[in-house]
Design goal:
Layout lengths: L1 E5 L9 H9 L14 H14 L4 H8 L8 H9 L3 E9 H10 L4 E9 L5 E5 L5 H11 L3 E6 L5 H6 L2 E5 L3 H6 L5 E2 L2 H11 L1
């Protein structure tokens, strides 16, 4: 039995923080897990920037409401889910994900939670489990699933390497170069072919 495990941002939808950086005019918020491997460090840094600029959850949600899946992502995911099981394992937050899941036809999502104060400001975050992506893949494997994992960033590498097949999708030159054992591709057609080969 197989479980296809996807990262969300950069693979199926645009990067939320990059979109918010463009809307807010704060270039520092373009930094993502493609740039910073330490997720705790990255998120605490983001929260500090938001507070510095007086921006809260509502402003980010307003941006997310206008984000559409990457071209072809919904159709790709619909086709994939017609013959195998798929789940999204993301470092995003439940407070961000709803509108995006609706546009992707409600795939299963494992993600994290934000702490938000009465003033609407983000005060912290709670990871569902330590090493979220790797831990979830290992959990699927422990109940009899072979996992195929797809991601694009530093924080996806552990789940990709732990799976029977890990695929880099639209990743950076550096990540591709330093992980030559992982196949990489840039289109959903190529990705579908690689997944079918691995099933």
């Amino acid at each position: 039995m197989n479980m296809i495990c996807f990262d969300l941002e950069g693979v199926l939808v645009p990067e939320i923080w990059i979109a918010f950086s463009e809307v807010s005019g704060i270039p520092e918020l373009r930094r993502t897990t493609r740039d910073e491997p330490d997720y705790d460090l990255l998120m605490n840094w983001r929260i500090g920037i938001l507070r510095e600029h007086g921006l809260g959850l509502k402003e980010i949600q307003n941006t997310i409401a206008k984000i559409d899946p990457l071209p072809g992502a919904k159709e790709f995911l619909d086709e994939l889910r017609s013959f195998t099981q798929a789940v999204i394992i993301s470092d995003t937050f439940s407070q961000f994900a709803g509108p995006l899941m609706k546009k992707l036809n409600w795939p299963t999502l494992f993600c994290n939670e934000l702490s938000v104060g009465d003033d609407g400001m983000i005060s912290g975050f709670h990871l569902r489990i330590k090493n979220t992506k790797l831990s979830t893949v290992r959990a699927f494997q422990s109940i009899g699933y072979d996992t195929i994992a797809i991601g694009d960033s530093f924080n996806d590498l552990d789940m990709l390497k732990a799976s029977k097949c890990g695929i880099l999708f639209r990743s950076t030159d550096e990540i591709i170069r330093t992980n030559p054992g992982l196949p990489s591709c840039d289109s959903y057609d190529e990705l579908m072919s690689l997944i079918k080969e691995a099933l």
